[in-house]
Amino acid sequence: MLNPHLSEAQLTAFMKSSGENGYILSVTTLVTTLVCCSLIVGIIKLKKGSVLADYLRLRTVPPKVMARWAGYLVGMMILSDLLTMLLGRPIVPDVMLAMYATADPAWLFWLALVIAAPLFEETFFRGFLFRGLESSFIGPVCTIFTTAALWAVIHVQYDAYGVATVFVMGLLFGAARAVTGSLLVPLGLHALTNLASTIEAALLVQRFHA
């Protein structure tokens, strides 16, 4: 439902904030993805004898495996939304509504959030970084927690509750990476999560202006 604490004046104020501007976020995300993914690929290729697909664990999994993890994700999202409502907090953060409201063209925002952001973040956190940490002395379990924590802290646009939610989601993504041995699983889960969030934001902003 629409956040009852977000007035029209507040939404307008959000829209004027460049830090929460959907267009700026979209362009920044797309450029970051292009540059950083290229750098990651370059660094991996510099490693003697390394194979990109093997290093990043770009392995396909059976559809039933992907479906199982998608089910875990849906269950976690439902529990998260229930807890959020019980705490009296908005399901969609105000900042997400503001970013969607200032996304022009909207398709650029969808591309950035649903495709580009998951591609870069998963390639780095559950791909490049995960591989390095997992093979070190800390092992897979600590790697799951470490990558989830590092991934959460880059989401500075959210408050403490939002960052904590991202951390828990990161634990699921990390577990999927460790159990399946495939980066494609957390990548798909991340894209699905962002798709759901963007749909919610789009519906609420549309209702607000109706």
Architecture overview:
The chain has 210 residues and is mainly α. 76% of the residues lie in helices and 0% in strands. It is built from nine helices and no strands. Helix 7 runs antiparallel to helix 8. It is globular and about 55 Å long.
From the structure above, extract its key features:
single chain, 210 residues, mainly alpha, 9 helices, globular
Describe how the helices and strands are arranged.
Layout: H1 8-15, H2 22-46, H3 52-55, H4 63-86, H5 94-101, H6 106-134, H7 139-153, H8 160-180, H9 184-209
Helix pairs in contact: 1-5, 2-6, 4-8, 4-9, 5-9, 6-7, 6-9, 7-8, 8-9
Report the C-alpha radius of gyration, rounded: 18 Å
Helix content: over 70%
Shape: globular
Query: Helical region count?
Result: 9
How far is the first residue's CA from the last residue's CA? 14 Å
Overall mean pLDDT score? Answer: 90
Unreliable spans are 14-18
E-strand count:
0
Report the structural category.
mainly alpha
**Percent of residues in beta strands?**
under 5%
Q: Could you describe the largest sheet, including whether it forms a barrel?
A: none
- Helix/strand order, N-terminal first: HHHHHHHHH
Please summarize what this structure is:
This protein is mainly alpha-helical and 210 residues long. 76% of the residues lie in helices and 0% in strands. The chain starts with 7 loop residues before the first helix and ends with a helix.
